Amino acid sequence: MELSGLQKTRSQYLPELPPCLQKSAVELEYGDATTVADPSDAQSVTRSFPLTYGKPLVHFLNPSSPRRDSQVKKEHPAIRVGVVFCGRQSPGGHNVICGLYDAIKSHNPKSTLIGFRGGSEGLFAQTTLEITEDIVLTYRNQGGYDMLGRTKDQIRTKEQVNAASNACQTLKLDGLVIIGGVTSNTDAAQLAETFAESKCQTKVVGVPVTLYGDLKNQFVETDVGFDTLCKVNAQLISNLCTDALSAEKYYYFIRLMGRQSSHVALECALQSGPNMVILCEEVASSKLTLFDITQRICDAVEDRAKQDKYHGVILLPEGLIESIPEVYALLQEILGLHKRGVSADNISSQLSPWASALFEFMPSFIKKELLLSPESDESAQLSQIETEKFLAHLVETEMNRRLESGTYKGKKFNSICHFFGYQARGSLPSKFDCDYAYVLGHVSYHLLVAGCNGYMATVTNLKDHVSNWRCGGAPLTAMMTVKRLHGPGASSIGKPYIHPAAVDLKGKPYEMLLRYAGNLLIDDLYRNPGPLQFEGTGSESKTISLTVEDQDYMGRIKKLQAYLDKVKMIVKPGCSPEVLKAALSSMVNIVNILSIMSSM
Amino acid sequence: MELSGLQKTRSQYLPELPPCLQKSAVELEYGDATTVADPSDAQSVTRSFPLTYGKPLVHFLNPSSPRRDSQVKKEHPAIRVGVVFCGRQSPGGHNVICGLYDAIKSHNPKSTLIGFRGGSEGLFAQTTLEITEDIVLTYRNQGGYDMLGRTKDQIRTKEQVNAASNACQTLKLDGLVIIGGVTSNTDAAQLAETFAESKCQTKVVGVPVTLYGDLKNQFVETDVGFDTLCKVNAQLISNLCTDALSAEKYYYFIRLMGRQSSHVALECALQSGPNMVILCEEVASSKLTLFDITQRICDAVEDRAKQDKYHGVILLPEGLIESIPEVYALLQEILGLHKRGVSADNISSQLSPWASALFEFMPSFIKKELLLSPESDESAQLSQIETEKFLAHLVETEMNRRLESGTYKGKKFNSICHFFGYQARGSLPSKFDCDYAYVLGHVSYHLLVAGCNGYMATVTNLKDHVSNWRCGGAPLTAMMTVKRLHGPGASSIGKPYIHPAAVDLKGKPYEMLLRYAGNLLIDDLYRNPGPLQFEGTGSESKTISLTVEDQDYMGRIKKLQAYLDKVKMIVKPGCSPEVLKAALSSMVNIVNILSIMSSM
């Protein structure tokens, strides 16, 4: 890999540290013992994690008089730390390692940082790379996971846990840092418990890095990678909005990453203001069927056609397909047949009559994609299922039907489909992700040195400037919940897991989306956050997920005036009822905008 | 539309003007009469453009003593100018209008700029929008064409030319500025000739704006939009390169915009260093068949597998499919049948036996796409044909065959396909495109005032700083060539056109690509130019197409050392012949890099 000019400039950027990490001697304070959020889960978690459950929270203390002791460099004993990337690559992942490296070396140059090449497989096989200044230099503030790579990322079976344990003992590791999302951090907790049980000296610390942004709980505000992913995607979505508005002839259906949870789709919608977004959580909570979703989009297309608008932008998370009740049931049947060893070619003939009817209704490209071998025990290959094309197909069919039956009187519906997955994931990380990841790297080191096992490195108050960030650690087990599975055959109580957090349908971001939904749908309130900036405007170290930019009052007022002008222009003596309807709808929009403005 | 923080900052950016435009009285000098590049075309062009052919070049003079006369503001008489977006939206298009507006108003606030809404259709229907300060403010340095929009963009038939002529006369336009690519500027030339003939007072000036970058000739260095498109795409391609290198399991097949010419694919390849790029011009000049191209990619996949690499990035222009001789023949047959009114459903049964054999060989999704109604008289709907999926499918089939037959011994081939079309087109324009477009807007105004009819606004020496840019105008007719069509039935001499310039296979950019091709293929010399920057590093007003960044010598030397280490590591007593082969191949790469470095 060669670095471009911008990459080189970025590689020289050194993130700021919060005050608690600027001292040579970092001070930790232990809080109360932690418990799980839902008391009814406590028993199950205690049973699974007897040695690591109930540990206290850790806070890093701010220096009482800042930098007073910075002259007296207290050297730590040399330690050996291993680090491994687990799960999907997220922008900023490299900076966790850079922060960890800088912390380790600044406290004792004889300490060693060992990277495992190729994710958990590298851990099991002990394929190592000693991380040196030279290596770190190339990857500072750079995207991807290519310093170490990754493969399959599970440390779950007895063999896997044993292999990991062997690696840590053979390499005499004092600590192991696991960089990943919900699954990897659940595995980290399990590993920590096993190590505690076997009195292995290696302490395990997890770092919240996942571009889905779904590792969120009372201790963790956001994850490394999510900010970059949303910013890059929001830019591309906005570009398509601009394009749609310029060409005025297509509907863009855009599928975004995000499985059970739709954080990415929600954030991108708030950033770029597309006409419509459908979240998995909405579909699941309202039990919307394929038919419902199709009708909802078609009604929106009709409403826009009445305003003579034949373009639009619609966002969907990739997990949408699984959140639709009847499709979920079908996918579960397919998954079950896969597990029983039935080959893809034979699955369709063994479906239940009901599932078979749904399956046969689908276009052939979707059938093929639904039958792909599953990605894990629980999920189909969502990234390979072109849900956006499927929905566009259903909408087109329905719009054609409405056109033919005469209930819809507009122009023919046209769509273009996009999947924004991989192209954002490899991006240079945003300043926020660089900073957050770098600080988390430092925090991990200090947790290990303090002997914390089964903890997650945490940084909170991220909305504020770095100098007000709060560092600490929280036991992984305190983040666990137990899913009570429903349905026949499933055991009534499952294993404790760190589960992905769903979009909170009562939370502020979703509430904001709802308030604007009507205007976004009709009025093309598109905005373009623009490409990631590293200097000047837009380069602030802020995460968009916590700081949606203030709305532009003047812009709204101008918009209102434009509406009023439009109504004035179209309402003329003898104008048709259609025109009057359009004018009325514009007036309703004006009232809506006014009421939003007055309430802010 | 609402502006984001970055958009607002951008809207306040005022591009610099070259010295020749800074004076209040711009001085023009006329050069020699122009002729077409190929003398054998002259007769045909003279015949078609008797009144506008052979006009002189126009140069804008630099002020002898700069800004001396800036105090004495010489006011121009008030004029009325119309402006229309033709062709696909290109980032920077709005800035042509902003530059034109500023030039008009600064010379006489009573002059009027009238925009036609909805492209050429708006021109015919006289759907106008008077462009005011307020409007211009919202669109300064913003992407898209949404200030005016566009529709179909042809001013060719007698009816269309008459409608345009009527509009210009009814609206009493002194000038009409047509913003577009090769087709629109050919139309502009025709309109200018018609106006000259009918002694219409409206002068016609064209502006080179096309994201394909294929309106290039002795007078025009590059087009507005190309720089932004390449930069945004190169970033996304680089993100995928990083992703490929991190996950090490997929080949990304990426289709880029670019029809007969592959400028975008070439530039993006030079910027981001993917493993392979296939240009239309290479395929056409070497007459590569589908089979050849498939074999070429498969051989590359095998070569990489020998180095234990199972990932890669391959770029294709959307026009590739048409440049393959046998597919071209098939598409021509389909086009012919469409023209004869045969419906898509019946076309396959009426193909010649040869074309039918090829058609039947194709997977069904491509069949469907090839049969879509054509975009124009000459081309299929290239943006709708998923060439990347088709090639990935052919490569997968062939790799599976090789695997089964035992000639290929590596892992299974996996691919993921992308089309980077629309998501880059709506981007905020790069600084270069903002500046270039803005200056072209000013130039257009001065050409109109000087009474130049049938000219293109030109700015040259773009590699240099804006203060050294040279402004002028060149007759559109001097850019024309006459295609001699081959094959039965086609007349031997066609009409004069401004044809898209192909990538010069003897030019420097292509030569550079060729020199690195071997290393790019095997060594993953990926680089990420990063997202568009507007301040700091990477924000220089330079177009990438003319200033590929200098290669990083130290980076290369480090790379070489890494190769040497690798060879040292793998070559051990008793190692297999395969390992020795891999080592040899690494050594060959080292020699190649060394020889490139020593020649630079």
TrEMBL record, chains A, B:
Pfam families noted in UniProt: PFK
Gene Ontology cellular component list: cytosol
InterPro entries: ATP_PFK, PfpB_PPi_PFK, Phosphofructokinase_dom, PKF_sf
An annotated Gene Ontology molecular function: ATP binding
Swiss-Prot/TrEMBL keywords: Allosteric enzyme, Cytoplasm, Glycolysis, Kinase, Magnesium, Metal-binding, Transferase
Gene3D superfamilies documented for this protein: 3.40.50.450, Phosphofructokinase domain (3.40.50.460), Phosphofructokinase, domain 3 (1.10.10.480)
Compartments where located: Cytoplasm
GO biological process: fructose 6-phosphate metabolic process; photosynthesis; response to glucose
Catalytic activities: beta-D-fructose 6-phosphate + diphosphate = beta-D-fructose 1,6-bisphosphate + phosphate + H(+)
Protein origin, superkingdom: Eukaryota
Main location: cytoplasm
Regulation: Allosterically activated by fructose 2,6-bisphosphate.
Residue ranges of every copy of the Phosphofructokinase domain listed in the record: 80-441
Pathway terms, separated by semicolons: Carbohydrate degradation; glycolysis; D-glyceraldehyde 3-phosphate and glycerone phosphate from D-glucose: step 3/4
Cofactor(s) demanded: Mg(2+)
PANTHER family in alphabetical order: PYROPHOSPHATE--FRUCTOSE 6-PHOSPHATE 1-PHOSPHOTRANSFERASE, PYROPHOSPHATE--FRUCTOSE 6-PHOSPHATE 1-PHOSPHOTRANSFERASE SUBUNIT ALPHA
Family to which this protein belongs: Belongs to the phosphofructokinase type A (PFKA) family. PPi-dependent PFK group II subfamily. Clade 'Long' sub-subfamily.
Quaternary structure note: Tetramer of two alpha (regulatory) and two beta (catalytic) chains.
Function: Regulatory subunit of pyrophosphate--fructose 6-phosphate 1-phosphotransferase.
Protein name in UniProt: Pyrophosphate--fructose 6-phosphate 1-phosphotransferase subunit alpha
Species assigned in the record: Cinnamomum micranthum f. kanehirae
Source lineage: Eukaryota, Viridiplantae, Streptophyta, Embryophyta, Tracheophyta
